[in-house]
Amino acid sequence: MNNLKQTLTRHLREIMIRKLFAFFAVLSVLLLGLIVLFLFREGLPLFKEIPVSRFLLGSAWYPTYDPPEYGIWPLIVGSLIVTMFSCLIAVPFGILSAIYISEIAPARIREILKSVIELLAGLPSVVLGFFGMVVLAPWLQETFDLPTGLNIVNASLMLAVMAIPTISSISEDALYAVPREFKEASYALGATKYETIIKVAVPAAFSGISTAVILGMARAIGETMVVLMVAGGAAAIPRGIFDSVRPMTASIAAEMGEAPFRSGHYHALFATGIVLFLITLAFNLIADQLSAKFKKEGCGTL
Amino acid sequence: MIITTQNVNFFYGACQALSNVTLDFEKNRVTALIGPSGCGKSTLLRLLNRMNDLIDGTRVEGEILFEGRNIYAPDVDPVEIRQRIGMVFQKPNPFPKSIVSNITFAPRLSGVRDGGELDALVEESLKQAVLWDEVKDILDKSAMNLSGGQQQRLCIARALAMKPDVLLMDEPTSALDPISTAKIEELIDTLKKRYTIIIVTHNMQQAARVSEFTGFFYLGKLIEFSSTDKIFTNPDVKQTEDYITGRFG
Ligand SMILES: Nc1ncnc2c1ncn2[C@@H]1O[C@H](COP(=O)(O)OP(=O)(O)O)[C@@H](O)[C@H]1O
Ligand SMILES: [Mg+2]
Q1: pTM listed for this prediction
Q2: Whose CA is nearest to atom 14 of ligand 1?
Q3: ipTM for this model
């Protein structure tokens, strides 16, 4: 009798706990969904005023003029260009440092490097922006004799510093997860350490490394504070790497405070948010696809 | 005599895994190493192609002669030793690449680039490993799709493509079903004409079936080494007899 009662209470407790977890899971998904819904509700009304193509491809962003122009093409270009350049720097650095940490470095150095990268990941972006503004910008301006040091190069360098820890730590996890058996097989076939790294470890970790790169890019394109501080803010299509740009995030952050509630400008900023959301969503979907595909097939016929 | 070990001691850090092992491996024969788990069979096998170099904090004493040369001499390149002494592991470990890429891995490392030559090597190695008929139409498919037994034969083919003189096998059938096991045993029988094979096995019937010589290890020591016939019918040492009759281990 007592036993039965115990079983029942235990059973009840199990159910309660499960319900509790489900509640929080559903709640977080619901909150996220509401935010996305809000984003679309505030952004979509813009397209009653102007067509989507004029918004996306229009090359003039004069939201406060009369009549206003809401072309975000320069902002999209600004976002993409700083993301691309930052990745040109962050991808090699991130991947090579991950290889060094997981495959080559002696144990002590590995620990030090891992802490340094963690520290880098924890650096508040406003501090990086500060550094870019106060140290890098004047240096760039003087060295290259520019009108301003707040430009694509500066923003890309600072974003690279932000993306490197993401790329490095995820790549390192992927390399670490490569089964020892593969490496042993490689050594037993007469491969050297470097041949083993290049021909076995990196291909086997390929899906993880690509995920790392894409998440690093997503991080760079979504980053706001750094580009707000050091990209220069010019809403025009750049002609060179020392031109200023105004990435989408910077535009939203800088202008939201001044845009009158539910005005065209306000809706245009939300619509920009939608574009940004769709781009990062695409990045994440690609990352998911890649890891799922390679998980299933190994690196197939690489 | 292709490989000889002389008074070999081996240490993982402070822990001694082999003491004073002296034995000879004959060319083109199958030698089996048996003994209870943890007695140092794998350790000895991995010493023969310097795989233990990869583990930090290990130490070897004594000499291991391969064709008369001490492979632990300072001027010996372990990569060259591993090319001449191939290894098959307990768990089949093909690379997550195509069947072809698995086989051509070692030849490419040693600089074979010619497509025709590589194709010929692929066919020859797979035929030697009696896998050709099963995979000749799916050479470009991932090796991960093969069954465990096929994967193990692929690993054997992969080692053979390197054209080694010696093949080390560490419990190559312990992860396989009886049919695959029988196939691998048959394969060992045909391979010994061309290669010297040293096989670690848990399975005493297997040692009796495939090998000409058997060494029995216990707690890091070589207790008895003799022809397989003698070990299994009339061993000199009481411990050996106890082990093969299943009284301990
Ligand atoms: N990488 C290692 N580090 C430390 N000790 C090890 C390692 N590998 C094996 N040993 C120890 O060495 C002894 C022999 O192991 P092993 O050669 O694997 O035995 P067997 O193959 O006969 O089962 C065991 O006591 C084992 O714990
Ligand atoms: Mg073993």
Answers
A1: 0.86
A2: B40
A3: 0.94
